[in-house]
Model the fold of this input.
Amino acid sequence: MTELTRRTAIYGIGAGSVAALAGCTDEVEPGAGDGDDGSDGGTGDGADGEDGRDGEDGEDGGDGLTDTAVQQAGGALSGPAWDRESRRGFCTLFTDEDEARWLFDDAPAAVGEFVEATDFSSSVLAYVESVGPTTCHDRIAFDDVAVEDGTLAASATVENTAAEDEACGEAVTFSGALLRVTADPLPDALRLSVTNGWDETAELTGDGGILDPAGLDGFVRPDGDPQTVPAPLDCEDGAFERHPGFYSDGVSWGSGGGTGEDGDGSGPLELRVVNPAYDGDDRAAALTFERGDDVRIELTNVSAREEYVGNHGKYNVEVLTEDGWMDVRGGDDDQFGYTDEAIAHRPGETVAWEFELTESGLVADENQPGGLRVCPDLQPGRYRFVFFGAADVAAAFDYVG
Done:
């Protein structure tokens, strides 16, 4: 369920950071293995620290590879945030310590120590997650490590660590591991051949993020033109000042960047309208609401890096009128000030706004400036939510009254 009309610019790190990692996931539909993968829930117990394999001499490691080291993570540190039904795993390359903090701040102590011991002036960290069918598939082994034309290449395989007489629980188990590579020059891209616990292999490249936008709940906007376009909004309250549109030069439908990034229509943040009362695939039905219905707006970081957005109250709620888009809310003079802040969102994280489609419901969100009100009453038509805290990203729905 997604809006497929997207522009093509690729966004960089938000809030003035420099690009410091390359993320990778595959989107190949995995098979069912042996058809019996147990029940979800296991994440492995392999937080037993470093596996001790430290220090290949780099003779066969391609361009300037001098040393490697591996650290098991004891589970999927991302959550896991990726979907095992559509992907073999997730991986990312860290070339800067600050960019690694979103993933490792709450990791087991051994993982934190391994990251802290990494000298990013001479080394990089590759992190990979995959999955297996039993609680004994809790370790990832690396092989064929090389640096080829600036790309760190390796194979990563989920291993069954059970002893010969050990019984394993049938539960889908996620595992993660880090590979430290010291090389000169340092690689700035990653390519892994990942084999999961069902012996299914896929090559993970630097394309894509931690989530597939096509798998998100909701839609970006209805197809076609609205059936009803009201006259320009006119409030009889002489003290009422309509909320201005703080975006400029249009909006980015469904996809955009974080704070400090241009809204070119393709980026790490995805915005969707979700109908809590409907779970089907009919776009028109999902995006049609009546008076008193609840509508939820979800903003998701689908990338493999931490993204920053502004104050969660930085949004417009607009209706398309004969004079263009107009915010249905307003208040007294000088009531539309917003604080400047940068709020971090981890990969896979979703922030949601939920409104009841009434005059009072649209101004009930605690993130909005106080004292806002809707005037005149809500009119049937095409409505849109514009979050100008993240490159003016927008999503729309139809309100029939």
User: Anything to note?
Assistant: The first strand starts at residue 21 and ends at 25. The helical segments are 101-104, 109-116, 283-286. Residues 1-23, 25-60 have pLDDT under 50 and may be disordered.
